[in-house]
Design goal:
With 459 residues, the protein is mainly beta. The chain is built from 7 helices and 32 strands.
Length: 459
């Protein structure tokens, strides 16, 4: 085999395996049917259509979309450059499987040099990751491997990824108040059909739980709702327990109960699969209500929750040496949050999700999950509230030089105002849950992100 034919075969094999790559380089599609989780911004990025043009093609005056709605992706047929006459290379040539943008460099944010029609033969020059440098029509540029193939190489069927074990259903007896207008679905996930909706401020009772979803009934209709939009009001233990004798406050007559680990999750019921409703810190004295089967029921805020007794020590009253105070949240919380986020790199973007049990995260959901797992107790809310409120400290201007663990905020992405956020892993690169899943972007190298930074916060 000659070096040239070897290059062609290797290139074709890479291209064939990459056939499942992201679809943002397809230029031939004429329409898009809106699916759950779609936004105008994500659709514009997927199909390489500007947000302004997408609105103009469909006479849209707002960003609201409806599932099943069909959107036009162009107003006129895309302009293509006719290639110079090139003899076809049967069996060895690499050809496009769709009209394909050739760009000035490897990345969807770089300038489009020419649109290559479907079925054209290309000459590979260099491959870098999911992109290949090619020559076409007298021009040289980069194309995505996902839309290249070779007639002599059959694509390799990708192996089916192993699905994580599904969360187990458990019986609970818990009352909540909704903190937003909340959809009720037929199953525990946003992919299930809607049953009804519950107005903000409504009290509901949950009878079972799967992961971060609980089963409730409202106005005679039952289904699952996300605990991310519920506030706990009362907790009933899942099994009979014997109350501690004594003051019912901080421990009992003889003991204080002190947290003996850096950070301890407080859960809605006495189970490690139950929803996390808060956390307590090392050295903190707990107000224990009752104890049973290795769990303490404690007061937390204006409600109660459960902590594992193995991470709590009983200290005789009067003999307690003041524990070392837990330091205020600092850069360490951000560093720990980065470590949590990195575990889920590659997981998809899931609208309104703040737990990996749902299959992925949205941007603010990732922040909520990562920081709470890192011991920084913060409620679940949206980007605009995280930016405007006191959460994560004071606002720092976009001229501030961030460090690893700082939060970065962006505006005017899929909607006007503060609308996206991530965690800086150094002074320039951040990790976040974006349109194409959880991953990394670099501000200085990507004009889209650089132009939308509004500032930073340091937890």
């Amino acid at each position: 085999m000659s070096p040239k034919s070897g290059l062609m075969y290797s290139f074709a094999a890479i291209a064939a395996v990459s056939i499942i790559a992201q679809a943002d380089e397809v230029a031939a599609a004429s329409s898009h049917v809106v699916r759950a989780g779609d936004t105008l911004w994500s659709i514009s990025q997927q199909h390489n259509v500007s947000l302004a043009n997408l609105k103009a093609y469909n006479n849209l005056n707002s960003d609201r979309l409806a599932i099943g709605q069909t959107l036009k992706l162009s107003g006129n047929a895309p302009t293509t450059v006719k290639p110079a006459a090139t003899p076809a290379t049967s069996g060895t040539g690499t050809v496009t499987t769709a009209a394909l943008n050739m760009r000035a460099a490897a990345g969807t944010w770089h300038q489009v040099l020419v649109t290559i029609p479907k079925g054209q033969t290309l000459t590979p020059i260099q491959t870098s990751g999911a992109w290949t440098k090619v020559s076409y029509g007298g021009k040289t540029g980069w194309v995505h491997n996902g839309y290249l193939t070779n007639s002599s190489v059959k694509p390799t069927t990708p192996s089916t990824p192993t699905k994580p074990a599904a969360p187990q259903e458990q019986s609970i007896n818990q009352s909540y108040v909704t903190t937003a207008n909340l959809n009720v679905r037929q199953g525990p996930g946003i992919g299930y059909a809607l049953v009804t909706s519950i107005p903000n401020g409504t009290t509901v009772k949950a009878t079972k739980q799967i992961g971060t979803w609980v089963y409730v009934t409202h106005n005679g209709k039952s289904g699952y709702v996300s605990t991310g939009y519920l506030k706990q009001t009362t907790t009933a233990p899942s099994a009979p327990v014997t109350p501690n004798a004594g003051d019912g406050g901080a421990g009992n007559e003889a003991f204080d109960y002190v947290v003996n680990t850096p950070s301890l999750n407080v859960r809605a019921s006495a189970s490690t699969s139950s929803a996390i409703i808060g956390s307590v810190k090392s050295g903190q004295t707990l107000r224990v209500v009752q104890t049973s089967n290795g769990w303490h029921q404690i007061y937390i805020g204006n409600t109660t929750g459960f902590v594992a007794a193995s991470y709590v020590k009983a200290v005789p009253k009067g003999s307690t040496v003041n524990p070392t105070p837990t330091p205020a949240p600092s850069q360490g919380a951000g560093i720990a949050a980065i470590a949590v986020a990195k575990k889920y790199v590659g997981t998809p973007y899931i609208w309104a999700s703040s737990n990996p049990a749902n299959g992925g995260f949205d941007c603010s959901g990732l922040i909520h999950y990562a920081f709470n797992q890192a011991g920084y107790n913060v409620p679940r809310t949206n980007v605009a509230t995280y930016w405007a409120g006191s959460y994560f400290g004071t606002q720092l201007s976009k001229t501030f030089v961030p460090q690893a663990g700082d939060l970065v905020f962006f505006e005017n992405t899929y909607t006007a105002g503060p609308s996206h956020m991530g965690i800086m892993i150094n002074a320039d690169t951040f990790i976040h849950a974006g349109t194409y899943g959880l991953g990394y972007n670099t501000i200085s190298k990507e004009p889209y992100w650089k132009s939308r930074v509004i500032g930073y916060k340091r937890p």
